[in-house]
Please model this.
Amino acid sequence: MNSTARCYFDHSATTPVDPRVIGAMEPFLHDGFGNPSSMYQEGVEAHQALEEAREKAAALFGARPGEVVFTASGTEADNLALRGAIPTPVTEPTHLITAAFEHPAILEVCRYLEKHGVSITFLSVGNDGFVDPQELRRAMRPNTKLVSIMAANNVVGTIQPVAELASVAHEHGALFHTDAVQAAGKLPIDIGRDGIDLLSFSAHKIHGPKGVGALIVRHGLELQPLILGGGQERGIRSGTENVAGIVGLGRAAEIARAEMAQDSVRLVSLRDQLIDGIEERIPNAYVIGHRFRRLPGHICLGISGLEGETVKLLLALNQAGIAVSTGSACSSHHAGEPSHVLLAMGFDAFRARGSVRITLGRFTTSAQVDYLLEVLPLAVRDLQPIASCAGRS
Ligand code: PLP
Model:
């Protein structure tokens, strides 16, 4: 596998692991193999490493170390948040509010809960990519137990007004969960200041390893575990901990916290350079979602006339050594289907099929952006005649 010469523009799908993270993990794949539950030296050392990682993960969100529960993914953290806060079968009428553009890790759990007697409201999303706190206020009911709205959307990159949404939830006595898998490490989040009761995140989106995530659970909140066993993670998530992965998550969180401000300035500048360049060179391209209230390195593009051709565009760019995605990484399982995110934002099914997501990361260079600006207009131009013929047949 030789990826060194490639230009990777899909950091919302996953990120390259930072060499400093690999350095921190390595000892725990060699001599530091102990089980953190063991009482002898190997176990004590592994346990210490776990607790240091917990402190670093907590610090990224202004949380206490005791509020961090390690999981095997962002998906698991989302499942634990919703199913842990609303155990089924419910014994009384229970209502949950989420938004129609959430990740499947939330939407599928909501559908599961709905089948088990929970009423769910799926809020619609404005065509600029935001959930409206007033719409949330109107949807609240006396039995609303939980509101779950993502901090930033994975397809369009828009940043949600989390503190306002949390305050509406709390005014009505509900808990507030946010899926911060895309926002973590990119935006300053403080669970105390923002009023967040539960927060999910994932290491592989912040230059850490895959297969490790965490749920931040505000002190005093009781959750029903999904996985029962030896009682690790204060009994909320049993199973021998993935020590090397968790150490990697901790180091990735520490680096993200230290470098967030400078990375963000650099990424916003590269992103805007890319948007300006695309608008100049590809007149039929347009940015989907609000132009500025979006993640620092995130662009979601529509290209009028090429809606049915985005997979061909992706493959042409791939041939030229460039990785971008159409919609979300999960869309490879649903190729050709309209994006539920764009449908939620009011796009029709045709336009909702045709978005291209370009996401930058810590190691993206200005030279890579220039290369993309050189290749993308040519790839679009080459596809254009095919698209217009296809449209006429
Ligand atoms: N939530 C959001 C918003 C995501 O973008 C993703 C992954 O793309 C997930 C949850 C799932 O995280 P993981 O890949 O760690 O399961």
About this structure: The longest strand covers residues 298-303.
